[in-house]
Design brief:
Strand content: 5-15%
Number of helices: 5
Number of strands: 2
Largest sheet: 2 strands, antiparallel
Oligomer: single chain
Radius of gyration: 17 Å
Amino acid sequence: MNRVYVCSCFGITDKQVKEHAEAGACTPRQIASATKAGTDCGSCVRAIQGILGRGACPRRQLLDRGAVGEVLAADAPVAPEPALAEAA
């Protein structure tokens, strides 16, 4: 089996990047969030961009339609549930 490493700093292969892209990652930043690729020396960012290309991306499609609010809402972190008060 041939492994083509995209990120040698963290041992991330092109297959892993493609799998994350198929799961919805549309940008190098989203790939970095999932794998750390591109967060150390940064030399792999262009390779990741090349793998991602300009393919179908739900977030990009929303931006193209001008639905910036929907994209921001989708990327917003979910607030943690407040801690339950301990029974005394």
